[in-house]
Specification:
Layout: H1 2-24, E1 34-39, H2 47-58, E2 62-67, H3 75-88, E3 94-97, E4 114-117, E5 150-152, H4 159-165, E6 176-177, H5 190-203, E7 211-215, H6 230-247, E8 252-256, H7 272-278, E9 281-284, H8 289-294, E10 300-303, H9 307-313, E11 326-328, H10 334-343, H11 348-358, H12 366-374
Parallel strand pairs: 1-2, 1-3, 3-4, 4-5, 5-6, 7-8, 7-9, 9-10, 10-11
Helix pairs in contact: 1-3, 2-12, 5-7
């Protein structure tokens, strides 16, 4: 019941309150250099937009920023932030987001205002948007993901899936483009890579001389907020299994990178991207982080004892059995496959195939292409 009420409240804001505020300010002139950055999942600029933000600063754009983590703040504060956004929206030349942001889609915007959706992940793996029943409910009227003029995706094969999830019609085919994911540019930066290794040596001195394994599982709902939930129990079991196996391999060192809302998940000393650079191997389950890890061409293992249940609940765009890495369904096979992945890696060809299909837009120059779009060169 609480979920349904929340959706009704969102529709009320989208169809009545936000459009009214926009209309009151609609007669404001669109300012050529005014760019809005907005996000409702973070209290500061998300990593996915950081390189764009820095480039905009260098080019002396007038940047207005609206960040608030709606899960951490009172509803009143969230609404006030979004109201401020709606008052500024009619004056902006560009609005840049990297996730769902309801105010952007709440009214018929001016044609002069362009909305850029950078999205917050690479590839196309789990179903999302209108393709996932638990993402946007069927009874939700309208769409929280409209008004987009550009959606940047990491590779050509992602375009069809994103158009489906965002219900972008055929005549607007050019909206979703394989420009790449801007936040992956750092993975091609030698200075960034060296800084990661230096930071890692200082942060984890016990890892010296060992094979570093990074565990980066997907976010499983509110597993970390309700210890009694099934999600929390499953997550704890996965963690115990992986830790037990790594303890039996003394030449390895395990690092966890968890979503801040998950049980035990914290914003640690290093970001997931920094840890990926230093890791010799990635263990995940249903997280799209493996697409980014493909750019580093290192072994990947998927530990998925609940594959059938997760598939029934969420579903995938891809055939899970053909992912570019070892797939482990049972704890008794976990240690063996970790060793095989580390010392007998035979998946390079599969990784190359996936990079070509899903990551061909990520070449270290994505931020420049987005800036070219903003400055009218694309």
């Amino acid at each position: 019941m609480k979920f349904i009420f929340k959706q009704i409240y969102k529709m009320f804001m989208q169809y009545i309150v936000f459009p009214f505020v926009y209309f009151k300010n609609r007669w404001s002139r669109v300012e050529d250099k005014l760019v809005i950055l907005a996000d409702s999942k973070h209290d500061s600029c998300p990593a996915y937009m950081m390189s764009i933000r820095e480039s905009l600063k260098k080019e002396h754009y007038d940047i207005r920023e609206f960040y608030i983590d709606s899960s951490k703040h009172e509803r009143r504060d969230v609404i006030n932030s979004m109201m401020d956004f709606m008052r500024t929206y009619p004056k902006a030349s560009y609005v840049i987001i990297c996730d769902y942001y309801l105010p952007v889609s709440s009214c018929k915007k001016k044609k002069e205002t362009k909305v850029i959706q950078l999205w917050h992940g690479c590839g196309a793996f789990k179903r999302f948007g209108h393709d996932a029943y638990d993402d946007i409910p069927k009874f939700y009227l309208g769409s929280p993901i409209k008004n987009y003029d550009l959606v940047t995706v990491s590779g050509d094969e992602c375009r069809t899936y994103f158009r489906s999830a965002m219900q972008i019609p055929d005549f607007e085919n050019n909206i979703v483009r394989a420009i790449g994911a801007a936040y992956t540019d750092k993975l091609f930066d030698e200075d960034f890579i060296q800084a990661c290794y230096d930071k890692f040596r200082f942060a984890y001195p016990n890892a010296r001389g060992k094979k570093v394994i990074l565990w980066a599982p997907t976010f499983r709902g509110n597993a970390g907020r309700t210890k009694e939930s099934k999600n929390a129990k499953l997550f704890d079991n996965l963690r115990l299994d992986i830790n037990a196996c790594v303890r039996e391999l003394p030449e390895t060192f395990l690092i966890e990178s968890l979503h801040p809302h998950m049980n035990g998940g914290k914003n640690g000393i290093m970001t997931t991207e920094e840890l990926m650079v230093c890791a010799d191997m990635l263990i995940t389950d249903y997280s799209s982080v493996f697409f980014e890890y493909l750019l580093l061409d290192k072994p990947i293992l998927y530990y998925v004892p609940d594959l059938e249940k997760y598939t029934d609940k969420r579903g995938f765009y891809l055939n899970f059995s053909k992912l570019p890495g070892r797939i482990v369904r049972d704890k008794k096979n976990l240690k063996y496959n970790i060793k095989e992945a580390l010392y007998n890696d035979d998946m390079s060809e599969q990784r190359e195939n996936f990079r070509t299909r899903f990551m061909n837009g990520c070449d270290g120059k994505v931020t420049k292409r987005v800036m070219d779009y903003i400055e009218g060169q694309i």
